[in-house]
Each structure stands twice: as C-alpha cells, then as structure tokens.
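2024-03-11 09:14:02 INFO receiving multi-entity request
2024-03-11 09:14:02 INFO entity count = two
2024-03-11 09:14:03 INFO echoing inputs for audit
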Amino acid sequence: MMEYSRLLLVLLLTFPAVTRTAAAESEAPPEPGYPETLVETGREHFISNCGFCHGRDAQGGSQGQDLTRSELVANDEGGNLIGEVTRTGRPDKGMPSFPQLDAATLEAIAAYIHTQRYLALTAEGGRRSVEPEDLLVGDAEAGQRYFAEHCTSCHSAGGDLAGIGRREGLGLLMNMLYPRQAARSSATLTVTTDDGAEFSGTLAYRDEFTVAMTGPDGVYRSFATDRIEFSIEDPLDAHIEQLARYTDKDMHDVYAFLRSLR
Amino acid sequence: MNMLTNALKSKIAVLLLPALALNVSAETSSDIAALLLDPPADAWLTYHGDYTGKRHSQLDQITPDNVHTLGLAWLWTANAGGIKATPLMVDGIVYITTVDNLYAIDARTGRQIWHFEAEQHPGFRIGQRGTAIWNDLVYLTTPDSRLVAVDRFSGEKRWEVQIADGSRGYWSTNAPLLIRDHLIVGVSGDFDNLPGLLRSYDPESGELQWTWYSTLPSDMRTDESENAYGGQMWMTGTYDPELNLLYVGTGNPTPVLNSEARPGNNEWTGSIVALNPDTGEQAWGFQVAPHDTHDWDAAEVPVLIDAEFEGEQRQLLLQASRNGYYVVLDRTTGENLLSTTFARTNWSLGEDEQGRPINDPDKFPQKPGVLISPDEAGATNYRSPSYDPATGYLIVSAADAYGIYFYKEEHGDYGWAGADYGVQSTGYLRALDYETGELQWEKPLYSGNGSAGVLTTTTGLTFTGDGTNNALALDTKTGETLWHSGIGRVGNMPVTWMLDGRQYVLMASGSNLFAFTLPQKRQ
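2024-03-11 09:21:47 INFO inference complete, emitting structure
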C-alpha cells in the first residue's frame, strides 16, 4: 500500500499529463461514508474557522480556493495533510494558522471537506468553479504576437515554456498573470557591507530596516539596511507591469497561445 | 511654613482631583455619552476615539524629537484569538475584544482584571473590532449576531439580544457606537441574500429602538424590479452632534458578483448614508459604489472635518473607499464636492453628474474572467485612516492590486454567485490632500496589504504598522520613519491616551497588545 502510494506520487510529480488523467478518473470517487455527527461537527468548525475564506460549502469563497478541487484534499487521508496545513497555515498565500484546533476537531473538519468534495464532484451544475473551457476564448495567434512583443525578454515558447500548454485552467491563467509560487524565490538580493564584503542570494525578507537572503551556501543572512548598500532584482516586477498593460482580450489571447504550446 | 504650604497644596489637589483627573479618583465615569461630546485626554471612549473618525489626538508629550526613545511599558496577551479590535480605555481600565471574548485590563500594568467568554454558537469567527462603553456596561457582538452587555466592573453578563438571525447567515464583528441613549449596532453577511440592517438599542436595557434597512426585506418591497440584497453596515460610523446626523458606510450588494440578477444602482448598497440617530430616519445618501460587482463595500470610515473647500469654510465628510475612489461630500446635504481615485482602478468610465463612478460594463464579472483593479480586498478596507488638520492630509492604508473575476449563469443568483481570485497586490501608506485627493507622499508597506489603521497626533506624528513586522512612528509631513519596533504585523488601529501624566500609544500584533510610552525620568 505504502509502496503503491509512493509510486503514484512519483508518477504524479514526474508526468504532469498523468495528473490530469488521474484527476479525471477520480471524478466519481467512492462515498466517504463518515458518521453524520462527525460531518456535522466538522461543518460547524469549518464554517466558523474556514468558511469566510473557503466558502461555507468548501467550494471557494472570498479569498480561499475551492477545496473540493484541491489536490491536497484529493491526496489527504483522514486529515493527515489537511490537518497539517490548517495547523501551520500558508503564510505565503495569506492563509492564517489555526494552532488552537485539536486533533479531533481537525479530523471532523477533514471529514466535512471530504464529504463536500464528494457532493461537489457528483453534483450536476450549480458549481461556482471555473472550468478550463471557460477560459478558452482567446486568439492564439494574437496571443503569440503579444507574447513576442512583451514576454520574450524573459521567456521563450520553445525554452522555459515548452509544453506549458499541457497545463490548463485557472491554475495556468493565474500563474501566467503572476506566478505566486515563483514569487517567493525569484528575487535576488545583492549586498555590499560597510567593510566591503559582498553577498548575493535569494531574497528571503524585506522591510524598511532589514533585508535577508538565503545564500548559495544555504546560509540565511540578514542585514540592517542603514549599514549596507543593496540592490534587489526581481524578474516578477515585469509581471506587475504587465498586469497594468493587459486588456482582457490580451489576457485571453496570451492564455490561448500558452495552451497551444503542448 | 514650607511644609504647611505643601500639605495644604496636596489637600487642595486631592479635593480637585475627582473633577480634573478621573483616573486618580476612586469615582468612575458615570455619563459616557456626555463625555463623548468632548472626550477627555485620559480616555479612549469609542471605536474612533471621538465622533469625527479623524483618529487625531491632541496629546503632545510624544514628539518627533523624543519618539525615538519610545519603549515598552507593558505587554498583554489574549488567551483566545488574534486582536483586530481597537482598545477602549476609561477610569484606568482597558477594554478589548477578540472573537467571543471581552477583557478588562489594568491600563497601568497590563494585568488582566477579568475575562468574559460568550457562549459559542455557529458563525464566522473572522474577527472582532471592539467594544463600546456605556456607564457601567461594555458590549460584545458575536459571530452569530448577538449583542451581549457585560458589567464593566465585574465582567458578568447583564443581558443579550439577537441583532439578526445568525442561522440565516448574519454575523457581527461590529464595535457599537454610543450616541446619547442609543447604541448603534451593525452586522455582516454577504454570503447570503440578506436585507442590510442597522439597529439601535437602548444601551441600558437592550430594548430595540429602530432598524434602518439599506436593502429592504422582501415583504417590505414595493418596487418589484428591486432585486438586490446586502449593504451590511459592518464598520462603526461617525456622528455630528450639531446636525444630529449619524454617518455610516454600507456594504456591497448581494448576489455579490452576479450583475444581471440585480439591475439598477442597488441603493443603498455601496453608499454613505446620513441617519437621524433618534429615529433611524435617513437624511441623505451618496453611492460611492453604485451597482458594485466586485465586493467593494463603502463601509470605510466617513471622516468628518470642518475645513475650507474651494475657499469656503464647509462641513465636510471624507471617505477613501474600497473601490479606489476618494470622495468629499458636504455632510449637511450629501452633495458631492470631489470624486477622484487614490489607488489603481480599471473599472470606471468616469463619474456622473452627481459624482458617482460609472461602471464599465465590460468589467462586470464574466465567464472567461476579467482582470480587475483593485482586487476583492480593495484599494483600502477596514483599516481606519487618520486626518491631520495641520497638514490637511488624510493618511490611508492603500493597495494597488489586481484580481480576476468570474460569473456565469451556473453560478446562480444567491450569495457570492461567482468566483474571484486575488492575483497581485502591493500595499502603501498614502497621504492625500483632503481637498484635492492628490498624493502628497507614499510609503511602501512591503506586503500586499497592511493590516494596521492610522493614528495622527498634534505634534506631527503618524502611528501605524507596516505589512511585515513593524510598528511605526512617522513624520506626518513627509512620511519619514522616526521610530519602529519589530513587534510583528500590527493588526489593529493604534490609539493613544494620557495616564498618570504619561502618554501611551497602544498597538496589537497577533494576540499581543503592546503599550508604549516614553522612558520615565529619574525622580
């Protein structure tokens, strides 16, 4: 069992295309069959603690993603993954931590989420989610022209983005607009200290008074900004500039172009 | 002789104390509503500190010259939940809330005096913005929309009332506003199609006095074309005692993202309204966000100032609103004097004759998605701004942000009725000229959004927090940082008061409340 899961995980990580097939096959999962009282307890705790962001039905809300379509939820067993992420939060994505929730509460919350996932995947219509086909309204050729003009100083259709079109849907669109996952590690901090020493590494923290990096040696170093010269290079700044430039048509055209890169 | 004089002096001082300095006396303040008309320096009696919403203090002990010596007087930690609340203080006691919890703390030591925990019912536990004080009571609103009155000396519950039906999707984080014998309380609830309501209660008995609806219950509707719900008044309003008008911002309409289901302007959602606090009767309304489809309420603080506008002295109302618009109104009539933007926006085609933004219909949420600026969290939000009269700056915690919005028929016409996702946001503290809305300075907050409010003082200081780790004191004129302390991300609204001749500044981060003051001189 263990070996099988590990093998599956390796396959999922290695071949993005397989992920989709696996997801498609899981469209009609078996009914989770949790006791009704556990699900009800989970529902109450979920609504109180999670519902504002993830929606009362766990199908996404004001800020949180649709958990019934979450890969983490799909891979969760009895709350092992849900529990951990709930306890620790996801600070980089704006999700707070809930250290006060005990194991029994987390188990109930997980039972509710799994039940909601089953209901959502077996429901007809009425979903609040965004389907991959909803997004395919652009003109790939126009997108290619836009790409050539605005994106090729950093990206290449045959290089870093080769095969990107095997991905689809909201995830691809969001990453195209602003790759949040990359945002944590994209910026480079270069520091010259007052005694002339130079350091360079991945930006780990920044405020008005302190900057910090993780160096190529894996060492974390922080510096007081008033005692050093420093510069920050963040290729994602270009994405922010782009956000101000996109028309909705441009956005959909570029998306259509990326989808064509299979 | 000398000793006699001193003894006599201290006797006179003791006799005078109850009248001059409430905190040193054993007597307690018994008429909070009267004190609110001219708040004393040794108290913070209501959410905004006074009725104007300026969050500007006349206290002058902490100055640009000595603020760098500011240090920690005490630290108190709530045993349950994070602090989003503005702490109130009277008679040397701090009253502060977290979700379901109300605490009394000794303002001199940070020692907890009592803790009241409300009975917990299902409801959104997303925050609690603070309490209100009336004579011997303090109040707590709850995640299932109850209003609980607690004895402020014993911490025991006196009574509770249901403001709105929690099981239908109403919740409350609201810090009530006391106006004479009216306790004004608001609720939240835009995940359901619910009428927007604001209620006034007798602060002593909890008896309901009036309800004002921003959107009517279906059985009270006479106009059948009116399909909008929502417009909840979840933030604390402001009040002009001379005009006897209560000003409050109303929330976004529901269904939230579905434009088609609710044609028209959807009054009075996304509005600033003026109400008579005695009757709940509406004097006027101005829609800052007509027919909103992006979750941009106009619940942000309506700041009341008396100042010149185009050379004429006027009674003004300022609001930096969540949709990115900064508006100036004449608060006697609601007449719009200025509408401009203070952050990036891409959804408006300009303003109509009345100064209301005109929606670009291409920017209503759509099936393939539309890229919208700002994002759902908005160009600003609950974070209270502050008005500094010396510079004429309204200092606002703002953001330039992008979100993507979807709506298709399958999303229906109930509650959120669509989907939206934040794409990218950059937070700034911005100083706006009150008369023109023009940017005077800005300061990056080093995160997508700040979570701190703003406080200015008469010595030219601005207190706030950045978006990462620091409490800040800035030069109000320039935005330059004069002091900082790495207490964590400030999550509430800074306040200040005098106690025993010392000026304190309080800010919270996480579950911790920090009281800062200048170092004590050696005697």
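2024-03-11 09:21:48 INFO post-check: DSSP finds two helices and 38 strands in chain B.
2024-03-11 09:21:48 INFO post-check: Chain B has a mean pLDDT of 94.
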